[in-house]
Amino acid sequence: MRPGIAWRRFGPALLALAGLIGFMPAEGGTTDASTRGNSADRCKSLAQQHIDQGSVTSAQLFPAGFEASPGTAAAGVPGFDLPESCRVSLLLTPTADSQIKVEVWLPTLTWNGRLQGVDNGGMGGSINRRALMMALKYDYAAASTDTGHEGKDTDASFALGHPERAIDVSWRAIHLTALVAKQLINVFYGQPVRYAYFSGGSNGGREALIEAERFPEDYNGVVAGAPAVDPANNLSTWAWLRFRLFQNPSRFIPDSKAAMIAAAVMKTCDGLDGVTDGVIDDPTVCNFDPAVLTCPGEDLPNCLTRAQVGWLHDLYQGPGGDYKGRRNWGFERGGETGWVPIWFGKSADEILGPVFSISFFRYLVYGDADWDISRFSFEHDRAAAVERVRGPNFQADDPDLRRFKAHGGKLILFQGWSDPLVPPRIPIDYFKRVQARLGKQATTEFLRLYMAPGVGHVIGGAGPNVFGQLNPGAAFDADHSVTAAVERWVEHGVAPNAIIAGKYDNDLEALLAPHSLKPLRERPLCPYPQIARWDRKGSSDDARSYSCILPRA
After folding, report:
1. H-helix segments, 105-172
2. Which of 168, 220, 176 is nearest to 198 (CA)?
3. What is the pLDDT, as a whole number, of residue 105?
4. What letter would DSSP give residue 450?
5. Buried b vs exposed e over 311-327: b needs ≥16 C-beta within 10 Å?
6. Most CB atoms within 10 A, among 404, 412, 415, 537?
7. DSSP character string of 192-254
């Protein structure tokens, strides 16, 4: 299978895999079975455990062995070999209108002393069992929540008439999950968690930042990938793009033109970094002008109409301007093939980008099931999104991380330059705001940002895109994994530098089953603002041929 085929085939269906996890066994953390009594009895006893604002609904012992994972089978990973575990289900009811389901999985014989918090994509709506399995496989205690409702992660209708449930999905469910998981761990093992970690991507990246910003004692280390730092900004941009199509449907670009557009961009900008490899290392220096693709006359497969050129420009530039100092960014040049089916597709009604934003405005901003895109006004609705979404505290854009730093917390952010959902410069802006608030030196002591060339939304893309995003840290070494790197930083005080990313024949299989494949290419991801520069001597597919340098001003 050629590079990239696995992502194009499985990527859209597996975007929800963007929940990440945690590194090496904690020293002295493994529990001795001879001192813990019978696993079945101890597990069963958790069913009677008192839980503040909730209750245990079941506690079951699962034997060691292979467990099927339907959600990963298409990527070549049918399931996982798991240790014996006690799996506890809970229902949390912090308000009369809350129905928060939680699962906590506890390895009975092999616990490594760590807790791994599991994230949710989109609007949540389900327990992330794939991520629970991957954490358990490496002997972590792990916890996941459905965030207080059941449903598709693109559907926010659960919030209509239920303001408390909007708060549950915003922050309350993920925070209470951390608290109840620690309580159960303390009872089951007779000792507290040594280290707690949370990793997430997309909305899970937002959840990760919520934890660091508001509940700094929940986790020692946090990884936030493609974080929806400012969902009011992000989703207003998505709605604006859909409104532009509503105003003029002829702007729509069919997916059949995606490859043509991508080829033109690469012809202009691929070699700017010194390597012609189908990846633009720094899209901010790419000045490709969509106008060069304008059809001389009628609409043809190898060109764009004037209206289509205008919409491609909209996708690159975004709405422009700013709201209270926050720039309204668009998407970067170089990832256009990954815009199918997000922004390019068979019809404007089938593209996925606007779906979430319409549900967001309909149910979380206005509480009006009849709201539709014809009523959208960017200036008005952008402001309403900020003010009304801040009510249930959905935003994760507070740069004041002083309490997290004081608690000893470590935070790694990563963002793909080819992301078709989160404009890549939004996390950069957040990083700079943290620096402005705490100072650059203080920020360096606990925070890193990695910009990943050619990487899509959390996973996938034309560039080297496997660097431990979907795995516990124990699956990789700290030089090849963001989750392992944050654990080494927390537990051993070794701050991360460059992290090596790999490109594989099947990127998803390489993420889900580490060490099952050999990389075709490797590149270092450099701590922002550094970029990787090829030495023009060694192989451009070998990470050792690159060094991290500051870009020219």
Report:
1. 129-137, 163-167
2. 220
3. 98
4. E
5. bbebbbebbeeebeebe
6. 415
7. --SEEEEEEETHHHHHHHHHHHH-TTS-SEEEEES--S-HHHHHHHHHHHHHHHHH-GGG--B
**CB count, 10 Å around CB of 543?**
22
Mean pLDDT of the chain: 91
> Cβ neighbours of residue 251 under 8 Å, at least 6 residues apart?
244, 245, 307, 308, 310, 311, 314
CA distance 321 to 467: 34
pLDDT tens, position by position, 249-300? 999 999 999 999 999 999 999 999 999 999 999 999 999 999 999 999 999 9
Nearest-angstrom CA–CA distance, 340 and 342: 5
Q: Go through the chain and tell me how many residues it has.
A: 553
Strands (E), 285-442: 322-323, 326-327, 410-416
- Whether the upstream peptide bond of residue 341 has omega within 30° of 0, thus cis, is yes
Residue 15 has pLDDT above 80, yes or no: no
Alpha-carbon span 495 to 489, nearest angstrom: 5
Identify the pLDDT of residue 349.
87
Question: What token pair was written down for 315?
Answer: 């996708």
Q: How distant is the alpha carbon of residue 496 from its chain centre?
A: 20
251 burial via Cβ count (<10 Å: 0-12, 13-18, 19+): buried
Catalytic residues: 202, 419, 457
Instruction: Indicate the pTM of the whole model.
Output: 0.93
Check residue 473 and give its pLDDT. Answer: 78
Q: What angle do CA 87, 90, 95 make, to 5 degrees?
A: 165
Q: Would you give the DSSP letter of residue 387?
A: H
